[in-house]
From TrEMBL:
Family as reported in the entry's similarity comment: Belongs to the UPRTase family.
GO terms, molecular function: GTP binding; uracil phosphoribosyltransferase activity
UniProt keywords, alphabetically: Allosteric enzyme, Glycosyltransferase, GTP-binding, Nucleotide-binding, Transferase
Protein name: uracil phosphoribosyltransferase
EC number: 2.4.2.9
Pathway: Pyrimidine metabolism; UMP biosynthesis via salvage pathway; UMP from uracil: step 1/1
Cofactor: Mg(2+)
InterPro entries listed in its UniProt record: PRTase-like (IPR029057), PRTase_dom (IPR000836), UPRTase/APRTase (IPR050054)
Chain ranges of the Phosphoribosyltransferase domain: 7-210
Amino acid sequence: MSTKLNVLSHPIVNARLSNLRQSGTTPKEFREGIHDISLILGIEASRNLEEESFSGQTPIGPFTGSKIKPQIGILPILRAGLGMTDALLSLFPDAPVYHLGIFREKQTLQPVEYYSKLPSVPPVELVYLLDPLIATGGTACAAMHMITDWGVPASRVKLLCVLGSEVGLQTVQKQFPDLEIWVAGVDPNLTPKGLISPGLGDTGDRLFNTIRD
C-alpha cells in the first residue's frame, strides 16, 4: 500500500460509516454522518501542516503561539462534495471555497466537466479536494487534472473521501502518485454500472433527499 494512501482506522469512523451504509438512514442522519467523518478526515489529514510562530499576550502574560503557515483552499466536487465542506470550514474558517462541477456520464462512466470556480492564478498553497465517493476514480482524476492545470502540483493536494473502491483508489494513485489520499473506508468491488459495492448508494441523492424510484 502506498504511503500516500491513508485509510482511517477508528471506532467512531467505523460506526458512522456503518450507519451511512444503512438504507434506512434518514437524509438528516446521512448529512450528519458525512459531516462527522469529514471532520475526522480533515483533522487526520492536517497532522503534518506547516506551522509558524507568533508572539501573543494572554490576560496574564506573553506567550509564543502558532498558526497554520500555508494558505489553504477547499475544493468540493459538486454536488456531493458540498456535504463535506462545512466540516472543513470549521477547521479552516478563512479558507476560500472553489467549486468544481464534474458528473459521470451514465453510459460511458466517463467524467464530464461542466463548472469551475477557479481564479486565473492560485492564491492558495495547499488544497483539500473533497469527494465523498471514489468509485472508478474518473471524477477524482478529472478534478486533479483541473487543479494541476491551474498551477497547484499534486504534492500540494490532499484528497479526502468517505469511501473508495480498491480499483478507483488504485486508478487515482497511478495517475497522481504524489497525491495524498485520506479515506474512511475501502470496499472491494464495483457493480457493472460503476457503483461501489456494498457502498453507500448515490451520496448526492442521499445528502439532498432527491432519491427517485
